[in-house]
Amino acid sequence: MASGPRAVIQFPWAFNDVCVIYAGMPVEKNSTVKFNNEQLHPFSMDMMSGREISREENRVGCPYFWNCKYAMDICKDNKPAFTDYYNGRVACFLYSSLKETNIMY
User: Fold this and answer.
1) What is the pLDDT of residues 14-24, one digit of tens each?
2) pLDDT per residue over 71-105, tens digit each?
3) Any long-range contacts for 89-96 (C-beta under 8 Å, 24+ apart)?
4) How far apart are CA 61 and CA 53, in angstroms?
5) Rounded mean pLDDT of 49-59?
6) pLDDT at 30
7) Dihedral, CA of residue 34, residue 84, residue 22 and residue 71, to nearest 10
8) pLDDT at 100
9) Which residues contact 18 (CB under 8 A, 6 or more apart)?
């Protein structure tokens, strides 16, 4: 089995929701419509823009730490938990301080 970045995106014409997985860790969950309009996790943004992503992963903290242009010190040694952001969910410390109360779950 190959190691390195992996993404799983459900087919938008067949499902209502998208789940993005990087290095075996779910990093974003959202509706297909919202995901197609705006990605939340830096990996999702990079992947959808076609940016080259290296295979280097952080084994301790956030697996996307070495590739992320928004990486902070906390990301290097800690795995982010899911944060509700508007109607989506994202595992990124960037959003933990931006938590919105407009959640419709």
Assistant:
1) 568 899 999 88
2) 999 999 999 999 888 878 999 999 876 654 433 32
3) 89/28, 89/29, 89/30, 90/27, 90/28, 90/29, 90/40, 90/41, 91/25, 91/26, 91/27, 91/28, 91/41, 91/62, 92/27, 92/40, 92/41, 92/42, 92/62, 93/62, 94/42, 94/70, 95/40
4) 18
5) 82
6) 93
7) 110
8) 46
9) 9, 10, 12, 28, 29, 30, 31, 32, 35
In angstroms, what CA-CA distances link 92 with 2, 11, 46? Answer: 25, 24, 14
Give the distance from CA 44 to its chain's centroid: 5
Q: Which two tokens stand for residue 96?
A: 């933990």
